[in-house]
Specification:
The structure is a single chain. This protein has 218 residues and is α/β, with parallel strands linked by helices. The protein has helices at 20-30, 44-61, 73-79, 93-100, 113-121, 146-156, 172-177, 187-190, 195-217, and strands spanning 6-9, 34-37, 67-70, 83-86, 105-110, 126-129, 161-164, 182-185. An 8-stranded parallel β-barrel has the order 1-2-3-4-5-6-7-8, surrounded by 7 helices. Pathway: Cofactor biosynthesis; thiamine diphosphate biosynthesis; thiamine phosphate from 4-amino-2-methyl-5-diphosphomethylpyrimidine and 4-methyl-5-(2-phosphoethyl)-thiazole: step 1/1. Keywords: Magnesium, Metal-binding, Thiamine biosynthesis, Transferase. One of its GO terms (biological process) is thiamine biosynthetic process.
Length: 218
């Protein structure tokens, strides 16, 4: 079973001049459990080469951490990635599933309860709730859903929920307590002076929040 608790989304524009592979290596050392390679403005050949390098790295340092490719189903298939993550304007989930098969992870970004229900019905393996809070790493998002949005989607679907958008070590606890199974972060790790330390701090908050949830329901 995939651990979506601490999900890294890469972004070269925020990396402070460091390579994506170095960011990923440090973040996994700090506790990242899933890596999404997101490249919006590079050539396809570069994207494929970078994805292969990161897949090789993850296989070497922690095979349990899957590589998810953002948007580009062709890149995911070319490198044998573990999964693909699709937005509301990307290829339809049912079409993507036919191409990638049943063993490949498929995540879908949702912006409403209706989106989440549709994603579950169309075969998603997990749902990305976006955005939870205001964020500067994407400029094509709707109004933030907030903690109430997480709660509403949690009540509507049974799939793992990964919350993204403006999440930091300061608000991770409330996001997990609201019903998210994990958090996806970009700048909180990629833009940190120490991606390893940043990942470790986030992981600490996730573990503590899960313990709180278990204790409150016991």
């Amino acid at each position: 079973m995939v651990d979506f608790s601490l999900y890294l989304v890469t972004d070269r524009t925020l990396s402070l001049g460091r390579s994506t592979i170095d960011i990923v290596r440090a973040a996994v050392a700090g506790g990242v459990t899933c890596v999404q390679l997101r490249e919006k403005k590079c050539a396809t050949r570069f994207f494929i080469e970078e994805a292969r390098l990161i897949k090789e790295l993850l296989t070497k340092i922690n095979p349990a951490v899957p590589l998810i490719i953002n948007d580009r189903l062709d890149v995911a298939l070319a490198v044998g990635a573990d999964g693909v993550h699709l937005g509301q304007t990307d290829m339809a989930a049912v079409d993507a599933r036919r191409l990638i098969g049943s063993s490949c992870i498929m995540g879908i970004s949702v912006e409403s309860v209706a989106d989440a229900i549709r994603a579950e019905n169309e075969g998603a393996d997990y749902i990305g709730i976006s955005p939870v809070f205001a964020t500067t790493t994407k400029d094509d998002t709707v109004e933030p859903l907030g903690l109430q949005g997480i709660q509403a989607i949690r009540a509507a679907v049974s799939l793992p929920l990964v919350a993204i958008g403006g999440i930091t070590a300061d608000n991770t606890a409330e996001v997990i307590r609201a019903g998210a199974d994990g958090i996806a972060v970009v700048s909180a790790i990629v833009g940190s002076p120490s991606p390893e330390d940043a990942a470790r701090a986030l992981k600490t908050q996730i573990i503590a929040s899960r313990q709180h949830n278990r204790a409150s329901t016991a």
